[in-house]
Design goal:
alpha/beta, Rossmann fold, six-stranded mixed sheet, 13 strands, globular, binds pyridoxal-5'-phosphate, binds zinc ion
């Protein structure tokens, strides 16, 4: 019902193989479902609870009644009326992935990824992370009762995420280098020491994340929006969401496909540069930099999948400055009441920029994915927003500070 296939050479591999890239040509692997065997109707779906496992026939696990789950998915899709006016667009929605159990979309990947780790008999899991992957993996490994190792770029992790990894008992190691270097190291370590790698190069993990697309379609009464805007770092999520829409389309559950739109931070934008130059591969950036630490990635491993998603969907890629990201974070927080971390706000910042440039039409129906919760990175709020004032405890002092 599903196989593991190389996206470059097409060779297929045993789904019990513990591999992360094609042993033949080093290409990325993807899970391919034989969709003609999948029986799934809208009516059947609507009878089930609204969470990731509602779509269990499209999740590549051997036994969907024995999964490592924290009840992930089922996140809200908000109509963003106040921003429709502000940005000048007809119909805008925010898919708020911060509402997942550990506060980011990574939980969708980890419920499948850690279930897979157990199926394959792994005793330990590992990842390199810009923060959210480690927070999520630590929680799911704890739930599964297996050891978790995380490598982080030292000093470049938002404090809430670091706290989560520590809280859930992962072994946390700071590497004095950026994420890309940490990923190289953990890949080598995992192969050498039989640790199961759960970065987004792991094709099973991306299968969980494709449920973002299923839910968006489901929440829009089984239709696709015109466009989905996604913040991009390692290029896994945008690829997964595109795969989800394609599968729903092939199953006849939606009639159209959205235009995928990837947004990176200006200081870490290899995908945007490659896309705009019409190149088929990215040029790694050795020193990525942005306030949005979650997407501070210079050598995205899933770039071939993301470039394919952009090509197939007639998509767009754009970069935004840190200032534009903070401005968008403020809009989400103060006009919609949705608190997101900086990387997430890149989607709204990108939408605004593309609308102003005329690249996105104002009559489109657009979904922006906000990927992680505001409390992941409280330091950004303390350094970029108004500070609280402190006063003596008297009514006069209180009135003075409020009414002047
Ligand atoms: C909050 C947030 N947004 C966006 C991303 C980017 O996702 P991807 O690396 O799959 O492109 C990440 C990844 O770490 C993230 O944590
Ligand atoms: Zn291959």
């Amino acid at each position: 019902m599903f196989v593991l296939r190389c996206i470059e050479c097409g060779r297929e591999y045993d789904r019990r193989a513990m591999i992360y890239q094609c042993p033949g040509c080093s290409g990325l692997l993807e899970v391919v479902f034989q969709l003609e065997d999948v029986q799934l109707s809208r009516a059947e779906l609507e009878r089930r609870p609204f969470n990731l496992w509602r779509y269990r026939e499209l999740m590549p696990v051997e036994n969907s009644t024995r999964v490592v789950s924290l009840n992930e998915g089922g996140t809200p899709l908000y109509r963003a009326r106040a921003l429709e006016e502000e940005l000048g667009i007809k119909e805008l929605y925010v898919k708020n992935e911060g509402a997942n159990p550990t506060g980011s979309f990574k939980d969708r990947g980890m419920t499948v990824g850690v279930t897979k780790a157990l199926e394959l008999g792994a005793r330990a899991v590992g990842c390199a992370s810009t923060g959210n992957t480690s927070a999520s993996l630590a929680a799911y490994a704890a739930r599964a009762g297996i050891k978790c190792l995380v490598l982080l770029p030292a000093g470049k992790i938002a404090i809430g995420k670091l706290a989560q990894a520590l809280l859930h008992g992962a072994q946390v190691i700071g590497i004095k280098a950026n994420f890309d270097v940490a990923l190289k190291l953990i890949r080598e370590l995992c192969v050498k020491h039989n640790i199961y790698l759960l970065n987004s190069i792991n094709p099973w993990r991306l299968e969980g994340q494709k449920s973002e697309a299923f839910e968006i379609a489901d929440q829009l009464n089984f239709s696709a929006p015109d466009r989905v805007v996604v913040p991009v770092g390692n290029c896994g999520n945008i690829s997964a969401i595109w795969k989800g829409f394609r599968e729903f389309h092939e199953l006849g559950l939606i009639d159209t496909l959205p235009v995928m739109t990837g947004v990176q931070a200006e200081g870490a934008s290899p995908l945007v540069k490659a896309f705009k130059a019409g190149k088929s591969s990215i040029e790694p950036e050795p020193q990525p930099e942005t306030i949005a630490t979650a997407i501070r990635i210079g050598a995205p491993v899933n770039a071939p999948k993301a470039l394919r998603a952009l090509r197939e969907s007639n998509g767009v890629a754009e970069s935004v400055t840190d200032e534009e990201i903070i401005e968008a974070q403020k809009l989400l927080a103060r006009r919609l009441g949705i608190g997101v971390e900086p990387a997430s706000a890149a989607s709204i910042a990108g939408l605004r920029k593309l609308l102003e440039a005329g690249e996105i039409a104002r009559d489109e129906r657009v979904v922006c994915v906000t990927t992680g919760h505001a409390l992941k990175d409280p330091e950004v709020i303390f350094s970029r927003y108004e500070k609280p004032v402190e006063i003596e405890p008297s009514i006069e002092a209180l009135e003075k500070v409020i009414y002047g």
